[in-house]
Amino acid sequence: MKAELSLPCADDIQDSRDLDTLLQGLKGVPEWDENLFNTLDYLYRHRLLRLLCGQASGAHLRAYRDHLSAVLDILGSEVAKMNPTVIGRWAAYVDLVDSQLAVNRRRPSETLLGRTHVREILERVLDGRVRTQRDIQTQLQLKEANASRILKLMEQAQLIRRRKIGRENRIEVGAMAESARVERRTVPRGLDYLVARG
Q1: Is the CB of residue 43 less than 8 Å from the CB of residue 10?
Q2: What is the pLDDT of residue 190?
Q3: Is residue 151 within 8 Å of 133, Cβ to Cβ?
């Protein structure tokens, strides 16, 4: 490793400022070597795991993605030929973060799921314990207007679908219902190989 660049510890990279500092240091590296690639690979893998396992905000994910994209741009094709495996992995990290950002945009917000009765209604719909809006009102002892307001929010988040049949509003499972129900694993599915390497 070159003396001009002091690499941080994996746990020292906490936010976008740390990534910016690292990027500035990498811009000044005159010659990349295997040791630098391997050290950075460990840093990026460790940071990615912390972001994905810790339910990081979109801002943190975007900062990581933008940083890695900038590093890939700095390298250019000649340097990238030195270690195509690591470069390919970093490009895959960028794609993975883009995918996670897309999923996060579609996932119902914790704010909605934390509202009174939302999780309870969702579980009852998923388990088949409620079929109509009237069932929800009766079982949860809600006023019609209150139930209607909650169900409207849930419908906008695609947790449920309401279908008018005669005089009843039938409640069905929405497209995003299962994603709201599933608890996050310690290591997101598909990232097990990152842990095994680290």
Answers
A1: yes
A2: 57
A3: yes
